Amino acid sequence: MPLIFSMVCTSWMNAGKMNLEKRMVTLKGSTWSSVRATVAPAFSTAKIRQMIPTLNESSQICVKILKDYAKKGEKVPIRETMVRVMLDMTSKAAFGRDFNVQHDEQSTFIDYAKKYAEFDFRSPRIVAITLFPNLCWVFKKLTGYSILNNETNRYFVEILDHLYENRIDNKENYDYKDFFQLMLSAMKEEDKNREIDREIEFEITGKSEKSSKGIKKQHIFGQAFMFILAGFETGPINLHLTVYMLAMHEEWQERVRNEIESVLNGKEPDYVSLAELPLLEQCIHETQRLFPAVVRLNRMCTKPVELNGILMPKGSVFSIPVYNIHHSEKFYENPEEFRPERWSPEEKAKRDPLTFLPFGHGPRNCIGMRVGQFQMRSVLVHLLRHFRLTIADGSPKTLPLEIDTRGSFRTVSPLYINVETI
Ligand code: HEM
Questions:
Q1: Whose CA is nearest to atom 32 of ligand 1?
Q2: I need a surface site. Which of 118, 129, 146, 211 has the fewest CB within 10 A?
Q3: What does the entry list as the binding residues for heme (predicted)?
Q4: Cα-based distances in Å from 261 to 73, 85, 254, 256
Q5: Cα 218 to chain center, whole Å?
Q6: How far is the CA of 369 from the centre of ligand 1 (A)?
Q7: Ligand 1 centre from 359 Cα, in Å?
Q8: What distance in Å separates the CA atoms of residue 220 and residue 55, rounded to the nearest whole number?
Q9: Which residue owns the Cα nearest ligand 1 atom 11?
Q10: What is the pLDDT along the chain (422 residues), one digit of tens a residue?
Q11: Which positions make up the binding site?
Q12: How far apart are alpha carbons 409 and 199 in whole angstroms?
């Protein structure tokens, strides 16, 4: 398995021609490495430290909203609420913009972000793109369809275009510190990373990336959009299910709440205290094991490789079944049970790290992993300090949860919790 992640490391997807499709996850070869290297500093410890007040501010807004639910005695739609708090954090940290997504019930921003998530893996369009990734562009030419919905694409391109036009000249000479600005500054720099990439010459699109010249406008848009997607999909999937698992397992909820109080001692969380919550981390890990936001990882051979005596030719595509690995009896005893004790340092040390892949692995692992972890911790710390969480009537009170496998990871019925102010 390590070989798959390290040597066979190109993405199997094809970047399209529309701006938002130049996301890192779809790029290959030297274009991918130059974009990844440019974006990496946005995820450094220093940058994450700077982000913490913004994350806490969004969590505080969420607490206020939940206090209203508690006062009215209404049950909370937990996924929707966690989507809103994470998108709030993401848009502020990435673009320095407040789209008011937590308060605005009719938010257009949320409506369009939802449209992205609502694709069905069994639709002919998605099946075709999955089976013949290298033919994406032919498919689009023939049908006019992109994997991204055109109307939604236009909405986000317009927002990003507006931001771009305002920032590119920076007439006010304001020192923006967000992700978007970092990418803009990189675009203005001379590209020093123009080496020829022979690894992807096999591409049957006939379009090699030899002419790539560092960061371009469509790369900035693609990466900015990746932030939106992470704020809408992967992050909230993990976050709302962790909240739900804590509501379901009240003894763990109490233990984590006590840990938070002893570490924070009444203070607002900062980078150091958020990093020091081992029981909370165990609960998040166990939720990510049970419900990995990305159920399958894909890799394509960039050169012939021998794996367990089988020769894989260049261009072979691999799927790594994350969900099945996480639920295998071979690695986890009683895998359907929520047992955060599996993640104590002693238990963790007994296990192969490659049996736990919520953020992928290798050179193409999730670049936003630490941002995602700090976002989740900030929200969970705020919620547990202010509320006792229980499962609302009508929502499942035991595991396993029924999962809808058609699109991205979601439960068949929406999950609701009750919040009681402490
Ligand atoms: C809890 C939150 C998150 C989860 C569970 C998650 C999960 C993942 C996974 C499983 C992958 C594929 C890794 C692989 O193939 O080995 C990935 C890739 C990626 N993620 Fe995340 N992610 C999260 C948050 C974020 C955030 C906040 C960002 C910020 C922009 C982000 C940006 C990316 C990017 C750019 C890639 C592609 C990396 C590449 O191809 O080099 N993710 N993520």
A1: 368
A2: 211
A3: 366
A4: 26, 23, 11, 9
A5: 20
A6: 6
A7: 6
A8: 23
A9: 366
A10: 545 554 444 444 444 444 555 667 777 788 888 888 878 887 889 888 988 999 999 999 999 999 999 999 999 999 999 999 999 998 888 888 788 889 888 888 888 877 766 655 555 555 555 555 555 555 555 555 555 556 777 888 888 888 888 887 766 666 777 778 877 777 766 444 433 333 322 222 233 333 334 567 777 887 788 777 777 888 999 999 999 999 999 999 999 999 999 999 999 999 999 999 999 999 999 999 999 999 989 888 888 989 889 999 998 888 899 999 999 999 999 999 999 999 999 999 999 999 999 999 999 999 999 999 999 999 999 999 999 999 999 999 999 999 886 666 789 889 999 999 99
A11: 366
A12: 33
- This prediction has a pTM of 0.85
Q: 229 CA to middle of ligand 1, Å?
A: 10
Q: What ligand 1 atom has the least distance to the C-alpha of 371?
A: 27
- Give the domain ranges of the chain: 2-200+215-421
Ligand 1 centroid–CA 183 distance in Å is 18
Instruction: Write the residue with the smallest CA distance to atom 21 of ligand 1.
Output: 366
Which residue's C-alpha comes closest to atom 42 of ligand 1? 368
Dist CA 331 CA 326 (whole Å): 8
The DSSP output letter for 10 is B
Query: 22 CA to middle of ligand 1, Å?
Result: 15
**Ligand 1, atom nearest to 43 Cα:** 29
- Tell me which CATH homologous superfamily contains domain 2-200+215-421: Cytochrome P450 (1.10.630.10)
Alpha-carbon gap, residue 322 to 359, rounded angstroms: 10
Residues at the annotated binding site for heme? Answer: 366
Using the mean position of ligand 1's atoms as its centre, give its distance from the Cα of residue 366 in Å.
3
**Cis amide leading into 400 (omega within 30):** yes
